[in-house]
Amino acid sequence: MRKMKDSGLEWIGEIPSDWDVTRIGYESWIRARLGWKGLKAEEYVDEGFAFLSAYNIINDKLLWEKLNFINEQRYEESPEIKLKKGDVLLVKDGAGIGKCARVDDLPLGASTTNSSLAVISTSSGLLYRYLYYYLISPIFQNYISRLLNGMGVPHLTQENLKNIKIPLPQFKEQVMIADFLDGKCADIDQIRVDVEKQIEILTDYKKSVITETVTKGLDPKAKMKDSGIKWIGKIPKGWTLTKIGNMYSLRSEKVSDKVFAPLSVTKNGVLPQLENVAKTDDGDNRKLVRKGDFVINSRSDRRGSCGISNLDGSVSLINTVLKPRNEMNPRYYNWLFHTDLFADEFYSWGHGIVDDLWTTRWQEMKNILIPVPPSTEQKSIAAYLDEKCSEIDATIAEKQKQLETLEEYKKSLIFEYVTGKKEVV
Question: How far apart are alpha carbons 313 and 24 in whole angstroms?
Fold first, then answer.
């Protein structure tokens, strides 16, 4: 049993008696790009020097994909942040603040960062891999939360970072801890990749089940005919086609969110708007939604956001609110409208100057042709998909829980070893 002592830091507790407590600034050089120096997006080049940002840090790792490049002049104007192997990168601004990655290699050659990242180069007494594990540990992430509490715009200054305290083992033990965690975390990460792949397969399977069922029905022996509509393809002989305008009518009453509670139109359906969602200035100019209405976001950047509302309420003006007609089964069409096939068709009828303003209005939507199974078959398809997709969703939820368990185990493991609660033997 190793001898322990009080670290003097309540968020760490006890550390081994032969460890020290120091500040990151004493053991490393911390710097960052001072602003953008007038750099504009149109200056990015197809080939040049890799220009990393917070978006290139995913799951505590650097992804050398989907990044921008700058020319040599822009690269040379900030020599202090030219990256080298052994650097640690930390997001110091914005929503991703606290994210961290280490530079084990420079696969694209000479590289640098934008102003959202701090570059940390350790001294000879601090192993960069040990510092990295400390920075991704719950200790540091909790410290970040406390430090930023109450700040309007999240921002870590170099002074903040220099003063962060860190337990410091002898260098030899730092190497042992880092080697041990490299192996263990690699194993955990591989399991996570496998589980994520299983979730991806299940998600794709769910999509295929929905698409196949709403366009081909439940009877695999049914005789088929060409619908004449490219996005639908073949349909059972007993089915017909009609325009959406024959199945739904437009609800266009304007209301206030002070009278009708605000609703959000998401990929998971129409839900009560969360308290922390930013409100717009159109609170008195919203669209009425009644229970049972179908609501779809008309903008292409909200692709797949639609569903049947289980509540009376109000939605923003970018949504289209539809009242189902009596002679159809809303649940069947809810499944149909959630397919990628329909989403592609829906937005192909739209108009706009740029992608994120591309909009499909009711006057276009109402003319889209959709399949019409017999009413009894609509009901059977909806019931089948309700049950089948619930089973798939339950399996996906179990996989998601596995991911959460793996993440918690990884955090616990890192915490125990970077604080010396457990010893590498």
Answer: 52
Give the single-character DSSP code of 254.
Answer: E
Which two structure tokens, joined as six digits, stand for 250? 């437009």
How far apart are the C-alpha atoms of 221 and 223, rounded to whole Å? 6
Asked if 309 and 233 count as a contact pair (C-beta separation under 8 A), the reply is no
- DSSP for 275-316, written as a single string: TTSPP-S-TTSEEEE-TT-EEEE-BGGGTT-EEE-SS-EEE-
Equal CATH topology for 4-168 and 218-372? yes
Residue 277: phi and psi, rounded to 5, are: -75, 130
Fold for the domain defined by 4-168? Adenine-n6-DNA-methyltransferase TaqI; Chain A, domain 2 (3.90.220)
Q: Which residues contact 252 (CB under 8 A, 6 or more apart)?
A: 287, 321
Give pLDDT tens digits for 310-360: 999 999 999 999 999 878 999 999 999 999 999 999 999 998 876 667 899
Domain ranges of the chain: 4-168, 218-372
Q: Concatenated DSSP letters for 337-355? A: HTSHHHHHHHHHT-B-SSG
CA distances to 116, 157, 204, 344, 394 from 382, in Å = 48, 55, 19, 22, 18
Tell which wins on pLDDT, 240 or 282: 240
Class of the CATH domain delimited by 218-372: alpha beta
Q: Mean of the per-residue pLDDT values for the chain? A: 92
Q: How far apart are CA 238 and CA 373, in angstroms?
A: 7
Angle between helices 138-148 and 375-418 (to 10 degrees): 100
